[in-house]
Amino acid sequence: MIKPRILVAEDDRYLAALIRQTLEGRGLAITLAQNGEEALFQADEICPDLVILDVGMPVLDGLTVLRTLKADRFHRQVPVLMLTAARSETDVRRAITNGASDYLMKPFRPDKLILRVDRLLQRSQSNNIRMGYEFA
């Protein structure tokens, strides 16, 4: 069985390592990117099943990465979980309006991250099966 591929774009190395450890413990394949430009490159390389994006990143911010992914025909159906310290209603609305599937605020509990990731992967998998794709 193929492990779901998760792209995590997070510039805080400690937090990125925590996310990696948490999700790899669930049997997921994790690829890390430390800035927005690297996130877009990795998205093209690995074709992720889910993207976790920080909003405040160097080079390209998370909202720019989100808009770019959603404008790309190969990535527009990939769910995106925004993981950020930005807490205002405007920030949440901006992320959702630009195509984010969910929004989780920092600091977060690892069990909440796992729940959100599992839900988004299940939703994505059922959408792909309905569209004629199946995960091997």
Topology (SSEs and partners):
Layout: E1 5-9, H1 13-24, E2 29-33, H2 36-46, E3 50-53, H3 62-71, E4 80-84, H4 89-97, E5 102-105, H5 110-130
Parallel strand pairs: 1-2, 1-3, 3-4, 4-5
Helix pairs in contact: 2-3
How does this structure look, described?
This protein is an alpha/beta fold and 136 residues long. The chain has one domain: 3-Layer(aba) Sandwich (Rossmann fold), CATH 3.40.50.2300. 46% of the residues lie in helices and 17% in strands. It is built from five helices and five strands. It has helices at 13-24, 36-46, 62-71, 89-97, 110-130, and strands at 5-9, 29-33, 50-53, 80-84, 102-105. It has a five-stranded parallel β-sheet with strand order 2-1-3-4-5, sandwiched between helices. Helix 2 (36-46) runs parallel beside helix 3. The chain is globular and about 40 Å long. The N and C termini lie close together (6 Å). Mean pLDDT is 90; it is low at 129-136.
Structural class: alpha/beta
CATH superfamily: Response regulator
Query: What is the C-level CATH assignment?
Result: Alpha Beta
Contiguous low-pLDDT stretches (5 residues minimum) are 129-136
List keywords for this structure.
single chain; 136 residues; alpha/beta; five-stranded parallel β-sheet; 46% helix
Structure in a nutshell:
The chain has 136 residues and is of the alpha/beta class. The chain has five helices and five strands, in the order βαβαβαβαβα. It has a single domain (5-129), classed as 3-Layer(aba) Sandwich (Rossmann fold).
